[in-house]
Amino acid sequence: MQRRLIWAAPLLAVAAMVIPAASKAAVAAGSTIDAPGPDMLGTHAVPIRAERFSDSLRRAREDASSSPMLQRLIAPARQLPAVRQMAFVQSAVTSGIRWISDATEWGQHDYWASASQTLAHHAGDAKNRAIVKLHALRALGFSNSDLFLTLARDRVGGPVTVLTVRSGGRYYVMDDTGAPPFLAESRRFEFQPLMSFGMYGAWVHVRPSTPATTFVAATASTSTLARK
To answer: Which residue segment(s) compose the domain that 56 sits in?
Structure first.
């Protein structure tokens, strides 16, 4: 479990900082994010300006579609239906890219590698493997606006980063266990999305009936646990 918690605290702390502003409809104050967010599991995805993540997101969004390694990875899935393409990519990335911490691979506490970098190193942590999955699905024809790197809290596994895919009006979760993608709604009592990052925007997940102070307190609690 430790490997999934090391990098989570900084992102959870940022979520705690931005949620109060977002919940006050601060989005209207100059936000340029127009892409539809991932409103899933009863949450409203509120757009935010994620300047703190600008360098990380620049690498995460770097187009890898022309990468020979990515093309080889997705080749067997080209003629499959969408759900089977997700399952194929999930399995291929998990088996082909070994898990390794950012500190070991990049000498940094938290480094968002581009998909091309991770493919070249054949190694990455949960979020960097999720970035490869995102670009693999892009190369298979999935829409940019339907792919999200989601920071969530799992009641069993703690803080996790997953790739969330919007398809047919439903949300599929591709976690870092290598298990087949699952419908988010099938685990609504276990899986709590906190923040999502897409090719065109960034969002915090807010439940309309939950006061911001309560959500921030829960997020701060998760951040504390992540440091242990």
So the answer is: 2-226
Question: Whose CA is closest to 168, among 151, 153, 184?
Answer: 184
Angle of helix 8-23 versus helix 212-226 axis, rounded to 10: 170
Residue 152 contacts residue 164 (beta carbons within 8 Å)? no
Nearest to 73 by CA among 57, 61, 85: 85
**Can you read off the two tokens belonging to residue 160?**
């996790």
pLDDT category at 31 given cuts 50, 70, 90 is very low
Whole-number Cα distances in Å, 68 to 90, 120, 130? 19, 10, 19
Dist. CA 222–CA 123, nearest whole Å: 27
CATH code for the domain in which residue 29 is found: 3.10.620.30
Does the pTM surpass 0.90? The reply is no
Number of structural domains the chain divides into: 1
